[in-house]
Here is the input.
Amino acid sequence: MIRRSSAARIGAMLLVTSALGASLAAAAGELPYRVLHRIPLSGAAPVQALAYGPGGKHLYAAAGAEVLSFQAATGASEAVVKVPGQVAGLAASPDGGGTLYVAVRAPARLFFLGLNPLRVRSSVPIRGGAPSALLYEPAEHALYVESRSGRTVARLDSADGKTVAVTRLQGDLEQMTGDGRGTVYVANAASDAIDVLASGNMKSLGAIPTPDCRAPTGLDLDPVGRRLFVACSNGTALIIDTDMGFAFEQLAVQKATGLRTLFAFHPNGPAGWKGGAFIAGAGPALDAIRMNAFISYTAAGSMPLPGRATALAASPAAGQLSIALAPRDGAAAHAASAADEPRQQAGMQILVLGSSGGAQ
Here is the structure.
């Protein structure tokens, strides 16, 4: 029941790193992925957000105050656009000939970027504090901007960026997701719960408890089956029935901080899985949960990662999953298993994963 309560420049032209791909694929268990591209990034700023463009033809990454674009099929760099502040979130839409929404921390603004070519079209101020995450719901023509420092979630009109409503929440706000039909969910690491909001007026509908889950940070939704996938810092993943408001499945995942969750239908192409949730963070691996049916889910193996994950994005159209990685600190790197080799932790990078048949 619900209870109240210059730039990161691209090193060399990107090629498939066959040795790394073979190493990761061999250890991936049931995961149907291999490494298609390893995109090394020069510069000290980690990638804070990833997003695929319409149709999955381009991958966009935010590192520091820059937005970078790559060809999804080859990993080749295409463009770099600077904005006046650190980027906190990205989201792409086919509207207006193709739009990339960019949330900047300070000054707190939402930027609208055209995609062909990649350039800034306009920007508007954001209310509620420095942005920490951005969510786009095309069915609602809405953007949701989270501010961890301000403890707020704001709804913006995706056409002009005008603020529709702002709500304030107590606790440590983490990843958020929405069902596109009037509800937004926010992981709250302080209260061990999922805050539930009515997206129209941003009023609180209460919270869903996360039993046996400590400090939930990763959150995504299957909008058809109405299942929430929650990644918790104590090594637990929950699957929550949002209609009933309780967790009906609990699976073991890595115990790590900063875990993020991503759900996708047919994540590696129409011939692959029906659906899957993928979890990664400061730990040494990418964990997967396979959807067998709307009432049946299984742990589906893990893939060692040569760094800590800072962002995830998937494109079923491209049959790809991308993971932004940063070097681990000394303690985390020491704890990583030998299966992580070759580590290649010299700098920031993006791993682009795809099915064994390559990008689709």
The chain has one domain: 18-354. The domain at 18-354 is CATH 2.130.10.10 (Methylamine Dehydrogenase; Chain H). DSSP finds two helices and 28 strands in the chain. Confidence is low (pLDDT under 50) at residues 1-29, 331-345.
